[in-house]
Design brief:
The chain is an alpha/beta fold and about 200 residues long. The protein is about 40% helix and about 10% strand. Strands 4-3-5-6-7 form a five-stranded mixed sheet. Helix 1 crosses helix 2. It is elongated and about 65 Å long.
């Protein structure tokens, strides 16, 4: 079949359609929206994408993505060191922070356990989490805030099993989050209620 559109347009549509939540139709609309904008706008976008990963790394303490030696959360000494919230991705930290309902520290797993995708505990920062908890002398509660998906629940169960013998309270984020929902798409009130309604998995 003969291509109707120029190759450069087809190529951008194809690349955009690989992004989560963007199908071919959405990719086409985005591409033509960019075509309607100035060259300066598209150049700025291109430069932003090209430099996206430059200087970025995971915080050595919590694994939040950062461009500093220590992320802004871990370097904030005014936060509550008695409580630690475990999340899947850096975007989950952004979502919880926007709720203004949590003042402790975080640990970013870098995903969830998914055997079908070949992702086990060794592919996540679970080993570092356990080491971090063992070294802490004032940690009182761990909130497991993985998404309420099948993989998220399995990961939460695995983590709670690994930490069950440690003298710390373990709770699971619950109320307010629908089954199958993602933290990054939840509104601020829902996240605050979910944190307030967390369920205890193990007492300290």
């Amino acid at each position: 079949m003969k291509h109707i559109l120029p190759q450069s347009i087809d190529r951008l549509i194809e690349q955009l359609s690989h992004l989560p939540g963007i199908g071919p139709k959405s990719a086409s609309r985005l591409t033509f929206s960019l075509l309607a904008r100035s060259k300066e706008t598209t150049r700025n976008l291109s430069e932003a994408i090209a430099g996206l990963k430059e200087g970025l790394k995971n915080c050595p303490e919590c694994f939040l993505i950062t461009d500093q030696d220590l992320c802004v959360v871990c370097s904030d000494t005014g936060r509550d060191s008695h409580i630690l919230c475990i999340v899947e991705e850096s975007l989950d930290v952004v979502a919880i922070e926007s709720s203004h309902g949590f003042k402790g520290y975080y640990h970013v797993l870098g995903g969830v356990m998914s055997p079908i995708d070949g992702i086990g505990p060794d592919q996540l920062s679970i080993r570092e989490l356990i080491s971090r908890v063992k070294k802490s002398d004032n940690l009182e509660e761990i909130i497991i805030a993985t998404n309420p998906s099948l993989e998220g629940e399995a990961t939460a169960l695995y983590i709670s099993e690994q930490l069950k013998d440690m003298p710390v309270k373990i709770s699971r984020i619950a109320r307010g989050l629908p089954s199958g929902g993602d933290l990054e798409y939840a509104d601020e009130v829902t996240l605050q209620r979910a944190l307030e309604g967390r369920q205890t998995v193990k007492e300290s």
